């Protein structure tokens, strides 16, 4: 039986499971592997990010967009990211917080893609 995302332990499971999928994905895995040498600090930062995004717990510091802006990303990358994120949530969670996590991920992906496209002249694929 699925439960909702209720606490920090759930966030750790979500982040770890999601990024395990990301690392083995043939489209977005290489993008992450090109910029992340040590996954542990990234995962720790993502625990804090999602804890802040879902539960309002202070602790996340950073500018997520600034880390993504220089990468060669297009719509297909963000679409895959969302598919993997939704799939991970759906494996274990259902409820209001699970739905909120999906919605926040969708809004973030849309905002990042729009900002990247606007910075690069409105094209679908970023030219670096």
From TrEMBL:
Pfam families: Bac_globin
Coiled-coil region: none
SUPFAM superfamilies, per the entry: Globin-like
Record key words, sorted: Heme, Iron, Metal-binding, Transport
Molecular function terms, GO-annotated: heme binding; metal ion binding; oxygen binding
Official protein name in the record: Globin
Organism of provenance: Pedobacter ginsengisoli
Organism taxonomic ancestry: Bacteria, Pseudomonadati, Bacteroidota, Sphingobacteriia, Sphingobacteriales
């Amino acid at each position: 039986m699925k439960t909702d995302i209720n606490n920090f332990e759930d966030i750790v499971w979500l982040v770890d499971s999601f990024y395990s999928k990301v690392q083995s994905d043939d489209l977005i895995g290489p993008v992450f592997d090109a910029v992340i040498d040590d996954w542990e600090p990234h995962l720790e930062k993502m625990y804090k990010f999602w804890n802040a995004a879902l539960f309002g717990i202070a602790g996340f510091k950073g500018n997520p967009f600034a880390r993504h802006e220089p990468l060669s990303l297009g719509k297909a990358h963000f679409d895959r990211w969302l598919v993997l994120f939704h799939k991970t949530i759906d494996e274990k969670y259902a409820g209001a917080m699970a739905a909120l996590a999906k919605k926040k991920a969708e809004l973030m992906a849309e905002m990042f893609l729009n900002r990247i496209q606007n910075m690069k002249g409105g094209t679908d694929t970023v030219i670096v």
